[in-house]
Structure formats: C-alpha cells, structure tokens
Amino acid sequence: MVGAKVHWFSILNSFMVITFLAGIVLVIFLRTVRRDLTHYEELDKEAQAQMNEELSGWKLVVADVFRAPSNPGLLSVMVGNVVQILGMAVVTIMFAALGFMSPASRGTLVTGMLIFYMVLGNSADYVAVRMW
C-alpha cells in the first residue's frame, strides 16, 4: 500500500476515550451494585424475621402450579405466534448466512421474511392446535 498512512494519534485518542468512558460506567455500576447489595441484605434480614411468622410465598401458590390456565385458547395462540416468529427469524438468518439473501439486492431480506412468515404459519397452527 503506497499511500496508506496509519493515523496512530486518532487510534490512540479513540482508545483513550473509550477507556475513560468505560471506567466511568464501571465506577457508576460498582456504586450501584454495592448500594443494592447493602439494601438487599437489610431486606433479607427483615424477610427472615417475617418468614418465621408467616407462610412463605411458595406455600401460598403450591396448588396453583398445576392449575389449568384461565384462558387456554389465548395461551395456545400466543405460543403458536412465538413459534412462527422464532421460526421465521431462524430460517431468515440461516438463509442470509448461507448467502441466498444478498445485501446488494434491496428488499430481498424483507421479502424473504414475509414469505417465511407465511410458510411457517402452518407450523404455528399445528403447535397452537396441539397445545389447545
């Protein structure tokens, strides 16, 4: 490379700014975590005293764990939608990684996502019906 000049000062300046900002974030994070830990220790001591007097939360909801949901149709539809959207995302990413969706051709990604969303509707229907 004949005319290539490395801008060492700019690289060093960027590195120093990033290091400085990361240090500030680290200090703020450590202060917050330290304050939260002391607060939680105080709450834990109070909770231990109350727990000896009352029933714990698990004992209150132990019977509700195996209870059927109040709206099973809505739950099954939501799970079906999650399956459809996750399937669409996985297949789209896989096709893009394999090179079938080139960044040079605009709109290929969105078109592929729409097509995969429509095609994977059958799997969402199957999962929703099986769950219901």
UniProtKB/TrEMBL annotation:
Keywords: Endosome, Golgi apparatus, Membrane, Signal, Transmembrane, Transmembrane helix. The keyword RNA-binding does not apply. It is found in: Endosome membrane; Golgi apparatus membrane. It is a multi-pass membrane protein. The keyword Cytoplasm does not apply. Coiled coil: none annotated. It comes from the Eukaryota. GO terms for cellular component: endosome membrane; Golgi membrane. This is Transmembrane 9 superfamily member. It comes from Helianthus annuus (Common sunflower). The lineage of its organism: Eukaryota, Viridiplantae, Streptophyta, Embryophyta, Tracheophyta.
